[in-house]
Design brief:
The chain is an alpha/beta fold. It contains five helices and ten strands, in the order αββαβββββαββαβα. About 30% of the residues lie in helices and about 15% in strands. The strands form three sheets. Strands 1-6-5-9-2-10 form a six-stranded mixed β-sheet, sandwiched between helices. Strands 3-4 form a two-stranded antiparallel ribbon. It has a two-stranded antiparallel ribbon with strand order 7-8. A hairpin with a 5-residue loop joins strand 5 and strand 6. The longest helix is centred in the last third of the chain and has 18 residues.
Length: about 200
């Protein structure tokens, strides 16, 4: 069980990892904590946005939309590899997912197939939205993939987690396909290698 790190520690860990960070507004206090608890945290969840255009993408992820109020994540990773911090605390990113998957993440074991949506993921995961159309054809620039790797490894290193604590939305909630265009297995390999260095 791990309490979420403070916003200041979160920012420090990201910068120490060599990530280019843009702080958007009062991101440290922008959250959905009034809707439920934030923590304990057990992992990192990666998403794609189904949007294009960095400025618009960051705005949507910070403010949300009528059906889903923001923040929709903690940070937005744009195609240029920049991390835009839009919220900290509970965020509307993971939704309900599979309790068996959560148990596997906590135990850092191979993930089972997600076939239920019975557990609050917004409470337990750091969430990162990555600018991509999610159609399987929109490219993932190396700068963006490298930032996903660095951000995930920085959080894992802080909490003493392995790469098995990093999952995709598609591995958490039935019917989700994100991130699409690279595999989470390949991303976990990259994170594992970075944690060794």
């Amino acid at each position: 069980m791990a309490p979420p790190m403070s916003a200041g520690s979160f920012l420090d860990r990201l910068r120490e990892a060599g990530v280019t960070v843009v702080e958007v507004g009062d991101w440290e206090h922008h959250n959905r904590n009034h809707k439920g608890p934030w923590g304990p945290v057990y992992g990192v969840m990666i998403h794609h946005t189904v949007t294009s255009g960095s400025e618009r993408t960051v705005e949507i992820c910070r403010e949300g939309h009528p059906e889903l109020p923001g923040p929709l994540c903690h940070g937005v990773i744009t195609k240029d590899g920049v991390l835009h911090l839009v919220g900290y605390g509970r965020a509307n990113h993971a939704g309900l997912g599979d309790d068996d998957v959560l148990r596997a993440v906590i135990a850092e074991k191979a993930l089972p197939h997600d076939n239920e949506a019975n557990t609050d993921g917004n409470r337990h995961f750091y969430g990162f939205e990555c600018e991509n159309l999610g159609d399987g054809m929109d490219p993932w620039p190396e700068a963006q993939l490298e930032t996903i790797e660095k951000v995930s490894a920085a959080i894992c290193r802080h909490h003493g987690w392995t790469e098995r604590s990093v999952i995709g939305h598609l591995e958490w909630q039935p019917g989700k396909v994100d991130p699409r265009g690279f595999t989470m297995a390949s991303m976990r390999e990259r994170i594992r290698d970075r944690l060794k260095s």
